[in-house]
Amino acid sequence: xxxxxxxxxxxxxxxxxxxxxxxxxxxxxxxxxxxxxxxxxxxxxxxxxxxxxxxxxxxxxxxxxxxxxxxxxxxxxxxxxxxxxxxxxx
Amino acid sequence: xxxxxxxxxxxxxxxxxxxxxxxxxxxxxxxxxxxxxxxxxxxxxxxxxxxxxxxxxxxxxxxxxxxxxxxxxxxxxxxxxxxxxxxxxxxxxxxxxxxxxxxxxxxxxxxxxxxxxxxxxxxxxxxxxxxxxxxxxxxxxxxxxxxxxxxxxxxxxxxxxxxxxxxxxxxxxxxxxxxxxxxxxxxxxxxxxxxxxxxxxxxxxxxxxxxxxxxxxxxxxxxxxxxxxxxxxxxxxxxxxxxxxxxxxxxxxxxxxxxxxxxxxxxxxxxxxxxxxxxxxxxxxxxxxxxxxxxxxxxxxxxxxxxxxxxxxxxxxxxxxxxxxxxxxxxxxxxxxxxxxxxxxxxxxxxxxxxxxxxxxxxxxxxxxxxxxxxxxxxxxxxxxxxxxxxxxxxxxxxxxxxxxxxxxxxxxxxxxxxxxxxxxxxxxxxxxxxxxxxxxxxxxxxxxxxxxxxxxxxxxxxxxxxxxxxxxxxxxxxxxxxxxxxxxxxxxxxxxxxxxxxxxxxxxxxxxxxxxxxxxxxxxxxxxxxxxxxxxxxxxxxxxxxxxxxxxxxxxxxxx
Lengths: 90, 561
Description:
The complex is a heterodimer of chains A (90) and B (561).
Chain A: H1 2-33, H2 35-38, E1 42-43, E2 46-47, H3 48-89
Antiparallel strand pairs in A: 1-2
Chain B: H1 3-24, H2 30-35, H3 42-53, H4 56-69, H5 74-98, H6 103-110, H7 114-147, H8 151-201, H9 206-209, H10 211-224, H11 238-254, H12 256-259, H13 268-304, H14 309-315, H15 318-325, E1 328-330, E2 350-352, H16 356-359, H17 361-364, H18 369-406, H19 413-436, H20 442-466, H21 472-494, H22 512-530, H23 536-545, H24 549-560
Antiparallel strand pairs in B: 1-2
Helix pairs in contact in B: 1-8, 1-18, 3-8, 3-13, 3-18, 4-13, 4-18, 5-11, 5-13, 6-7, 7-8, 7-18, 7-19, 7-20, 8-13, 8-18, 8-19, 10-13, 11-20, 11-22, 18-19, 20-21, 20-22, 21-22
């Protein structure tokens, strides 16, 4: 069982790293560090960097949490199936 | 019916609703009192978190602040939402799995140390108390502005309401009133926003429509000598925007009254989903606020700047009431009868308090009197819901962490529950006292509560979950260094005591929590590698919070075989 749990934790951490990278790129990189470059582009009246900082980043945050919750549901179910399988065969 | 009549009506109806809910959800166990019996449904908890989170400042002041800051207002928008990603991914599921009542519970148990528990409980009380006095004052201010009572009367009414539902229902009562309060505040925020978006942009969806005023707004601002509205870093440097945003994010994730809400749901899975719902409900307001800010700024400049003062007063009868409160003031310095609005204090003839932007919104948009009453009820809902969440943290810190865990009292369930009720009762009295007699430092401290939370709780909770080797020596050293550095820097640069220039790379007091947080991470990590590893049972505790409930059960069954 312990190797299944270790694998579950590795996958969990990898998922977090991916999602937090997106989080950092969208909020810190695009909305703050590169905002002046992005503002050269216009999107429906919004300078793009301004839109990312005041709207786009918030939408992204909401999506990131829901993606995390649904992916973890899948990882939970996989782990449970493996553990139950081991117990049934032992 | 007059505006005041409508306001009394809405305030009366909503207060009656809160008391009714409190009566329906009264509790008789400590588990019910502190964590609502771990029985709050996922989406309802999301709403409760949103109400817990969005204070009088979010509801009344934020849009106004953004309208004066332009782009730089993004520090609040991203800072106060981005923290939920950290909370959902790094903290909430594991603290729920840990399954106790408070943040000091986790810190004390994980770091097998009573001193760590005591430090955590002092920090929790300090952060919550400074924050809650501002909320009580917020209740008083809404009462005084809309209902012409004194601020003191408003604070007393607010205290009475919170006292009833917090003492009676504890976390369960607070949760269900927060669900109702979220509904009231979001309706009160969105209706005027929809109406203004429709008249100004032709689309009722503020998030879409506000792009169409930005170009003109940039133009007017430039003409008047303010920088363009959408141009970044007009008010603060890029480095400061970055550091303040990070400090607000990590601080949000470390605030005890938000973290404890995730103890109230049934499972770890529910904790993850309810974090998503919480941010969804918060985002409804937080993506509307920047639109309201731009509309309000545009309306204000169009109506006033360069216009004839007497004519403006005659055409906008709502202005008189706000001039009387002193929140809006004209001073025709050059005597030409024209309102000169400039960034230069020597020639500027109009001063506007940011709070007006939301409070006067319905009147500016020409909406009927009932909407103004609704906005007042919404502001009260925002202040009361946040106050009650904070009071619960104060109550549980004293009634549970101090009285039961540290002092080892409370043998019977009855005694433990009574201790909780009395502690919250005293919390209400204390908060009310500071609401009526606000100490001068409160408004500063509230802003810095985030920096302090970021520099103290956030790193040691994250490392406590993700690094089994983190030791009590590491955590205590890290927390002390982070807190001391941040607090001293704030005192040196932002308080009246020394008023030094921000000497650390020019980072402002608001953003210094980020540096404190980084220091805390480094110190905790390093000291943990130089001190003896935590005992086996602590490492097992960490292993256990990382896996779902069914797997823990299977592991326990395997151990029995």
